Amino acid sequence: MSNRDENESGRDAAPRPQVFVTETPDEPGAGFAEPLAPQVIATAETGRIVPARAPEPKAAGVAPHRRRRRGLAMKLGVAGLLAAFCGWLGIDLYLWIAATFEFSTGAGWAATAAVATGTAAALAIIGHETRSYLALRKVAANQQLIAAHRDTMGAADMQAAIRGVIAGIPEDRETEAAIEAFQRQVRRHHSPAQQVALFSQNVMALLDRRAEAIVRRAGARAFGITAISPTAVTDALFFLACSVRMVREIAACYGHRPSALATAHLLRRLVVEAGKLGAVDLAGATLTQHLGAAVAERVAASAAEALYAAQRMARLGLATMSLCRPVPFRPDEVPGMLSSLLGNLLAPGGQTRDDE
Amino acid sequence: MSLFDRAGAGLSEWLSAVPDLAELVRGSTVNLAVTGLSRAGKTVFITSLVHNLLSALHQPHRMPLLKAVGDGRLIAARLAAGRPGDLSRFPYERNIERMASSPADWPARTTDLSAIEVDIRFAPTGALGFVLGTVGSGVATLKLRIVDYPGEWLLDLPLLAQGYAQWSRATLALCRQGLRGETARDFLAFQSDRRHDQAASEDDARRAHDLYRRHLLAARDRHGFSFLQPGRFLDPGSLGDDPRLCFAPLETGGALAALMERRFDAYKAEIVAPFYERHFRNYARQVVLVDVLGALLAGREVFEDTRRAIDAILESFRYGQGGIIGRLLGGARIEKVLFAATKADHVPDVQRDHLAALLRSMVALSSLEAASRNAGIEVAALASVVSTDEDTQVIDGHLVQVVVGKPVGSNTRAKFFVGNVPARPPRQEAWGKPFLNIPVFEPPLIDVSPIDGIAHMNLDLALDYLVGDRLR
């Protein structure tokens, strides 16, 4: 059967495999034909080569970020609720001002001034919070971008991402020196992963040291307070207070406050840690009651609880560091529990420079 | 000599070869094998490595990816005093002066063995650092020992596992193939004209040797071939006109072939084997430098030849994880190998990754042996000295990326368009015409004093991979 007959008989059937012959170069190696062939082009320039540096990342710039797309229904719902609330508030205030004017003109103008002042203050606060929220989202997006595409993204994209990170870092003499050192080291040929490594090595390492010092201080605080606190409830309350303070300090150390998601995550951890601490208190109390002697009871229970609290505080601190750090930790950069807890003891003089 | 004398002499020899106890425990010396074919850039690699290490104190930003430098733990590096073993000292100062002079030039071709040792003083980390910091000065020293030699000699190492007949058969088969056939025409004609039953004479041996040597030189210089044995025919070093070199591959049978075989065996036993035993048995780390770009542009035949040469060389080394016991028994093994595509500065940024990928593909088979013995393998593209800059050029209406540099001996700069650098070896029909005129660009401005270092690409990354674990 010829091809034509076959095609006609199977007109309704699915397309069959076929071979399409395309034009091929006649000569072998035609793929390397001009202008792709290697060549040397003489120029009129003189002078020896001075190796160029990579364009230096500057503190100004916009980090690329990808927004998580929310559902349309959710957006409309939030917008509707907001509109309803604003409408209700507006109408209520209008009616209140109108009622005040009916009472007396002076009181009416005073009410109008009070509402105008309150509205301006509310707008200022909302603007500030919105800016802060957007900045946090930018940092979180940067972190996600670097974590996910460190090995695959282009060198220029990584430079832009690093520019975004630099823009959010707290400005002081030490960080400026670290950023300058990074800029002197990074070269055109460095891959994105190498750029991140250099950035981590120079800039992030400095902030990590500061954050570790905060963790150490919080650990020591938790140890001391737990050792002298009289009840499990006060232990838990003190632990919570120390944790919140530490989280805020670490976030500020990295140049931002935790994003909404990070805050929720950290609060959940705080609740879990406080719960665990309370359980240990109860277990310790039961155990020491069985031991009997009042002195042994006090020493054993307090020491164990205090150590446990310090260890938990350090763990929480390290978790906070990895959430707040604009560039994710590489496996060899994650600070150890021991160094975080005992850094004060191992450092010459019992205190590191960052603790001062 | 009595049995006791022989045992005593054997024990004494063994003890002299065994490093001292402190060395065994701390591993404070690293013998780095800088391996590469002729013109792969071994001498420049060593010179730049040493200069940048010495400069690290004043200019730490040159080597940021070497962790000890990046972490600020490198205290200083200095050249070890005295002659390294029984070898002459590597001419580091002369090479730097030559590269820094005006007009600048690259170090001269290596013609003999030399070695250099660098003492790297650093602050160790971890428990060792804590102990050293508490009870001592807090400083440790790593001695980095590197040997330089003509790349051609490396190809003698595979001869140790071959007999004359086997080597002759393989070599003559190669001589009849492709471009080698042109350069070996006179040598092959001499063989075919000569009767097997003719008596052997010194004149015939000399003539055969000269013709074969001429073929090797032409194959190297005219076409860029690398797999050329024996290596000392191309570069005899201090041997000069030693009669043990006066042989050539011949069809077996006949008195002349028997004479050649005797000389071949003497060459192996008296020249190659001691060279291997003295200089290639105690390496713990190895960097294999390959001029991938040169091989690619020289065409399919040279590319395959380079691959064959690398395979042959790597078969001569012993790989695996060495421990204290292994070192004690004098059986050091190469624990880490870095394959490096050199002259990466001749390729624009956008294609540089392809250079490393192409090398990875080239050495895929030969690296399996090392990997199967649990040795670490890594591949990178590097430039020991960056002698170019990035630029663009319009060629036939297409804007293309080029590199620009100042060719040696020229007053003006030139742009070099490298063409397409594929990530894998091209298919047979995709090979273009050989391009052998790769420009040799002048080194950049260099300070002779070890203060500012030399611009490079990934030299710090290479060093961190090779010895970074010993600097912790």
Structural descriptors:
heterodimer, A: 356 residues, mainly alpha, 10 helices, flat, disordered N terminus, B: 472 residues, alpha/beta, Rossmann fold, 2 domains, 8-stranded mixed β-sheet, 3-stranded antiparallel β-sheet, 11 strands, 41% helix
List the helices and strands and how they pair.
The complex is a heterodimer of chains A (356) and B (472).
Chain A: H1 3-9, E1 39-42, H2 72-103, H3 105-149, H4 155-168, H5 173-185, H6 192-228, H7 232-253, H8 260-291, H9 294-324, H10 337-346
Helix pairs in contact in A: 2-3, 3-4, 4-6, 5-6, 6-7, 6-9, 6-10, 7-8, 7-9, 8-9
Chain B: H1 3-17, H2 21-26, E1 29-36, H3 42-55, H4 67-70, E2 74-79, E3 88-89, H5 92-100, E4 114-122, H6 126-135, E5 140-148, H7 164-175, H8 178-183, H9 185-193, H10 202-223, H11 231-234, H12 255-279, E6 285-290, H13 292-297, H14 300-314, H15 324-328, E7 336-341, H16 349-362, H17 364-372, E8 376-381, E9 389-395, E10 398-405, E11 414-417, H18 459-467
Parallel strand pairs in B: 1-5, 1-6, 3-4, 6-7, 7-8
Antiparallel strand pairs in B: 2-4, 4-5, 9-10, 10-11
Helix pairs in contact in B: 9-10
